[in-house]
Amino acid sequence: MLKNHNRALSGGSTADAGELTTERKSKKSRIVLIDDHAILREGLIALSNMENDLEVVGQAATLSEGIAVAEATQPDLIVTDLALSGATGLQGIVEFRSRIPSAKVLVLTMHDSEEYIRAAISAGAHGYVLKDATREELIKAMRAVLAGKRYLCSHASARIVRSYLGEQTVAPPIAAGVTGREREILAMIAAGLSNKQIASQIKRSVKTVEKHRANFMRKLHLHNVADVTRYAMQTGLVMEKEASGSGRTSMRS
User: Does position 119 have pLDDT exceeding 70, yes or no?
Assistant: First the structure.
């Protein structure tokens, strides 16, 4: 088939149209798996490779390794956990969307709270699946995300629906004295952006960002990035972003 196609390109016999269609259909989607448990990665590789349209082309246990593998292989889909060695909060999603923009990102995690689901989507994830999902649901999620759709597993969808129906507790208000700019920077930090990335987005110096960061951490009694991420999710600062693909975090006013 490929030989015929090559001959057509070089002026030889033309490949049959139906043959080319079959070739396009048989192309497999390339996947990179990132999780710190080797046994889970091995299981996912076995499951994926059972499908005619999916192929695992790389795997990694840490964020830095995952970025290197993804940049080298340029996959169609990155399946990643939220908790990775060398990553803080949602940093992994932000990094993958920034460094490999053509790849879709599917989160596969044990975190089942509404805050984590919203935060992951806000950071740029295209889908969210829990690790207790069935094989069928995981494969369905992969194919949906590869097709350009958003996908939430049944449990995650139920969480979001209950929230819209008012069955979740109201998020605590933002502490008084925190400015709009400080709230914006707080949410960006929670989404995994560095001071330099934030400075570029808001068109201010890194020194200005550091000053705002020190101010709101002092006002809110936050001590590290984990505290910032937790606070942003609890107060609703990290919201589901609009389908703009910009990677910026939508803010609650």
Answer: yes
